[in-house]
Amino acid sequence: MNQADTLQRFLFDGVPVRGALVRLDGAWQQVVSRHNYPAAVRHVLGQMIAASSLLAANLKFDGTLIMQLHGKGALRLAVAECTNERTVRATARFDAAITDAPLAELLGEGGTFVVTLEPKEGEPWQGIVALEGDSIAQMLENYMQRSEQLDTRLILACNDDTAAGLLLQRLPDGHGDVEGWPHVVALADTLQQDELLALGADDILYRLYHQETVRVFDPEAVSFACNCSEERVGEMLKLLGGQEAADVVLEQGSIEIGCEYCGQRYVFDEDDVNRLFNFDVMAAVREARH
């Protein structure tokens, strides 16, 4: 398999450490091609989409891992999602005047970082990531240590063409040298961002760990996909209510809603609204107005 758009999981035989490498080329380009994101936003989203792919690699259920950065500064919102089927998507909201700046400055005072696990069956679970550290990687490392008591090292990188990342986690139980974690991390910290972006998983693992015994699993394909649909948008309009939906159609001629992730646009006219609410809501609202 071409190592573009792949997730590569691996396990050390001599140290209780697991890891994963992700490289997103086409999938990342699908994200950035749909919006005119400034460089500062691309930098954040690229790291988040790589991180979400890496953390979702260890999900034990069918569902989605969602990362959300909420800010009160120039960066209002950044979201990255990865499903257990290895599909990703991302979006952002920001001020038009946003420029390159440290993450804390982009978010402003009172920013929040939320990780949500959303299973297809059962209740979702949310965790709040403290904005401690200068990067998304450091914030998530601190979060994994505090919430899961799991030592983690994340190295993330992106440019206009590629988003990539390396994840290492010390297993609570395992065979081998339990004191080998610092050695594995020290080798990982020699990896340069341009190497992470340019090299495939096999080359990176050889470059870092050719003197270690590493069990490499089959690479898994990652792709861009959006789960928006006319049905989902219709359900959202039902929550809005028949009168409100009809009012918009009477005033604007139709309701047009665009997906923030993929850019797909959905248009609902009078017939669509009547069908959605299963009665002639348009006629009822017209009559009520007169």
Automatic annotation (TrEMBL):
Keywords: Chaperone, Cytoplasm, Disulfide bond, Redox-active center, Zinc
Pfam families in UniProt: HSP33 (PF01430)
Alphabetical list of PANTHER family matching this protein: 33 KDA CHAPERONIN
Location(s), subcellular: Cytoplasm
Free-text function comment from the UniProt entry: Redox regulated molecular chaperone. Protects both thermally unfolding and oxidatively damaged proteins from irreversible aggregation. Plays an important role in the bacterial defense system toward oxidative stress.
Domain of life: Bacteria
Gene from which the chain derives: hslO
HAMAP family hit by this protein: HslO
Name this polypeptide is given: 33 kDa chaperonin
Major site of localization recorded for this protein: cytoplasm
Modification after translation (UniProt): Under oxidizing conditions two disulfide bonds are formed involving the reactive cysteines. Under reducing conditions zinc is bound to the reactive cysteines and the protein is inactive.
Family per similarity comment: Belongs to the HSP33 family.
Disulfide bond annotation, renumbered to this chain: 226-228, 259-262
